[in-house]
């Protein structure tokens, strides 16, 4: 049964989700570079990845992955490689001295941003272990399916608020104006942070 303690878990979940990381950086970058629709599309992709891992963790996938270390390693290398690729793209953009243009939004570009957000989250194996550990704390043995689904809904509601807020906040005219003025510095910062995140996934213990 979900009790008042779960409120503190939700608060911690919100703070963790809002802290700078590959997912929030990708949302902010898309919003500043391509506008609100792209930022929200990226946020929706990140949320979809979070939902996927959350459902998997709630129904024991994290335990299965713990028993199959090779699967974790495969996801680790794919995720690290993707983050390093994004870092390289940001570095190349930072080195190019060209005027900033807000891209034209179409169905294909929205799909690309959604897929980018989804891949950033789904290729991070640390996400499912964090969710699995959290469920172990808040869901006592014998918890019913209704409690599990309620916990999932509340967690994803908090995630949606955090990620979509990033997309809205960084797509404001003020945020875009700052990006246009400081584009090369911001892209350089993105390159460094994506590269660092990829390196950390490669070198840190996941379990």
Automatic annotation (TrEMBL):
InterPro entries tied to this protein? LeuE-type
Q: Does the keyword NADP apply?
A: no
Q: Mainly localized where?
A: membrane
- Which membrane topology term applies here? Multi-pass membrane protein
Entry GO CC: plasma membrane
Annotated keywords: Cell membrane, Membrane, Transmembrane, Transmembrane helix
Q: Where are the transmembrane segments?
A: 43-67, 74-91, 118-139, 151-179
> MF terms per GO, please?
amino acid transmembrane transporter activity
Which Pfam families does the UniProt record give? LysE (PF01810)
Where found in the cell?
Answer: Cell membrane
What is this protein's name? Threonine/homoserine/homoserine lactone efflux protein
């Amino acid at each position: 049964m979900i009790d008042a303690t779960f409120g503190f878990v939700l608060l911690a979940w919100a703070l963790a989700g809002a802290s700078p990381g590959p997912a929030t950086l990708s949302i902010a970058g898309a919003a500043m570079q391509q506008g609100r629709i792209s930022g929200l599309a990226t946020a929706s992709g990140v949320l979809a990845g979070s939902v996927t891992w959350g459902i998997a963790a709630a129904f024991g996938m994290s335990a299965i992955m713990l028993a199959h270390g090779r699967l974790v390693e495969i996801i680790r290398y794919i995720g690290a490689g993707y983050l390093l690729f994004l870092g390289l793209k940001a570095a190349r953009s930072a080195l190019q001295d060209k005027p900033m243009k807000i891209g034209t939004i179409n169905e294909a570009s929205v799909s690309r941003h959604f897929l980018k957000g989804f891949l950033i989250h789904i290729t991070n194996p640390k996400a499912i272990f964090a969710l699995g550990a959290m469920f172990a704390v808040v869901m006592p043995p014998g918890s019913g399916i209704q409690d599990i689904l309620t916990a999932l809904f509340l967690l994803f509601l908090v995630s949606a608020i955090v990620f979509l807020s990033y997309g809205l906040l960084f797509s404001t005219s003020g945020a875009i104006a700052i990006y246009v003025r400081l584009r090369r510095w911001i892209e350089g910062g993105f390159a460094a942070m994506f590269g660092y995140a990829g390196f950390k996934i490669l070198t840190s213990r996941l379990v």
